[in-house]
Design goal:
Blueprint: H1 2-50, H2 58-69, E1 80-85, E2 89-98, E3 101-110, H3 114-129
Antiparallel strand pairs: 1-2, 2-3
Helix pairs in contact: 1-2
Length: 135
């Protein structure tokens, strides 16, 4: 009988430690997915608005990221984003840190101009047919 008590006094803390580490790991990956999804949504919105000159700024995208994350994170509740906007690309670096643990996500998206590409294709097609369409 005493052998079981000694074995259980060693085994039960190990089992509880494994359960707690599993829960902690699930929280970590949950928060990482929330931050990654919010960064992706923010960069997509930024790339869409970047086509219209003057419609986008770094502060607005940072605020949008913070709204997307909101109170959804469990471990990394202070997640923040750094935004870089150039003429041809939007980049967001999202980071969260707590007690020596950190998660970092970088999302980039090119600023596309589909209407310009369509116009160029139509213009080239018109040149091939012998018509001169300058629209």
């Amino acid at each position: 009988m005493r052998g079981y008590i000694v074995e259980m006094s060693f085994l039960m803390p190990m089992i509880l430690l494994m359960i707690m580490l599993s829960i902690f790991g699930v929280f970590y990956f949950h928060d990482k997915n929330i931050i990654e999804g919010a960064a992706y949504e923010t960069v997509v919105v930024g790339a869409g608005k970047a086509r219209e000159k003057g419609m986008i700024d770094e502060g607005g995208l940072r605020k949008l990221f913070e709204e997307r994350v909101g109170d959804k994170c469990i471990l990394f509740d202070g997640a923040a984003a750094t935004v870089r906007i150039s003429d041809d690309e939007i980049e967001i670096l999202a980071q969260g840190e707590k007690r020596g643990m950190n998660v970092s996500v970088i999302k980039r998206m090119p600023v596309t101009k589909p209407e310009q590409k369509i116009r160029d294709m139509r213009r080239m097609k018109g040149l091939g047919n012998g018509t001169n369409d300058n629209n």
